[in-house]
Amino acid sequence: MTELKISQGFIAGENEKRADAHRADYAALGEKLARSNIDIDAITAKVADFFVAVPSWGVGTGGTRFARFPGPGEPRHIFDKLEDCSVINELTRATPTVSLHIPWDKADPKELKTKGDALGLGFDAMNSNTFSDTSDQAHSYKFGSLSHVDAATRRQAVDHNIECIEIGRAIGSKALTVWIGDGSNFPGQANFTRQFERYLAAMGDIYKALPDDWRLFTEHKMYEPAFYSTVVQDWGTNYLIAQTLGEKAFCLVDLGHHAPNTNIEMIVARLIQFGKLGGFHFNDSKYGDDDLDAGSVEPYRLFLVFNELVDAEDRGARGFHPAHMIDQSHNVTDPIESLISSANEIRRAYAQALLVDRATLQGYQNDNDALMASETLKRAYRTDVEPILAEARRRHGGAIDPVATYRASGYRAKVAAERPATKGGSGGIV
Ligand code: LRH
Ligand code: MN
Ligand code: MN
């Protein structure tokens, strides 16, 4: 029996209040789509079958270099975090898995698995952390980890990744995501070539420890914490890594890890074409790695990324099965609400991309009709697919209006009474 944090009866009661309006909206959209020969139920079924993993680190309030302002009922440990994650899934029915970060979420794997099973949650990719030090480690990562000049430090970082694989095996994960902060802060500080050679050799050791049915994702990021150069700085380097390591290695695209105005959807297309797209960390950004809620700043870009994914799905692109994960930091919202909203925005982009008339689009492309090609995309994007999203949730026991239902449930006040208040504080710079 799944341990429910918000009862099915409560969700059904909230849905009942919205049932008439929802039924009417769904019927109206169904009629509209039928005029374009689109079966709304087929789209709803696809959307209901689309899932995205929630990051364990996303359910606590984030923070910046300047300060952190915790909210009420902050999770105390991974087991509280898993409970918060299960609330998101109960309401959205879109997030049945959680992505763990080690050592932040370190706990007895048996207990993790038992708790996950009880809550009806599985585990997505494991994330290693060699970008910060723990109090008990022998070698510091101040000057790098997998690419460090010192072999013992590199070995320690490799061993940590292997430990992440071991924990992941015990809880049913099938992938390891490696992001490192290695780089340099001054020209001349590091030899680019030697540093990358060391990184590739260390990653080769991790790759050797990967079970046959696992995938290894490497995540590129342009800068930060290193500000002059970064070892895995862009998708080109990332592609070289995946090619060098082998067939179980893939590139992970975190949407916030690019320069502003980068054509991310085109990067996605290239990685798909060459069979190396591993998956995503969804979020949004305005200036840098802002970790804002998915679709909150540039929803059209999110749609364009999904347009590439649906295109690949439609043509049965080789080796195409990307992992979908969220990677966000919430500073001014209730993290549960932000993650609910992001899961919806991600599904929204998928639903809109499913509505693109691909045969017509191809016709305009072949005729060099730029305006009508663009209009074909816009037509799908402009469709209000909210009734489809709501119906996909409702059919699987979720909420027609998940944020309103969450607020009405009183979950935040309940956990605030159980979990001691945490103090805020300054960030890293003061
Ligand atoms: C790095 C990153 C990476 C980390 C996470 C906490 O900026 O995107 O995925 O694991 O943030
Ligand atoms: Mn990320
Ligand atoms: Mn990031």
Short characterization:
This protein is 48% helix and 10% strand. It contains 15 helices and 13 strands.
Key descriptive features of the protein:
single chain; 430 residues; alpha/beta; TIM Barrel; 15 helices; 13 strands; 48% helix; globular; binds 6-deoxy-beta-L-fructofuranose; binds manganese (II) ion
Q: Which ligands appear in the coordinates? A: 6-deoxy-beta-L-fructofuranose, manganese (II) ion
Structural class: alpha/beta
Biggest sheet layout: 6 strands, parallel
The protein's oligomeric status is single chain
Spatial ordering of strands, largest sheet: 5-6-8-10-11-12
Low-confidence runs of at least 5 consecutive residues: none
The radius of gyration is: 22 Å
**Fraction in helix:** 40-55%
* Number of discrete helical segments: 15
Main CATH class: Alpha Beta
* Rounded mean pLDDT score: 97
Distance between termini?
48 Å
Q: How much of the polypeptide forms β-strand, as a percent range?
A: 5-15%
Number of separate strands: 13
CATH superfamily name? Divalent-metal-dependent TIM barrel enzymes
- As for the number of domains, it is 1
CATH architecture: Alpha-Beta Barrel
Elements, N to C (H/E): HHEEHEHEEHEEHEEHEHEHEHHHHHHE
**Overall spatial form:** globular
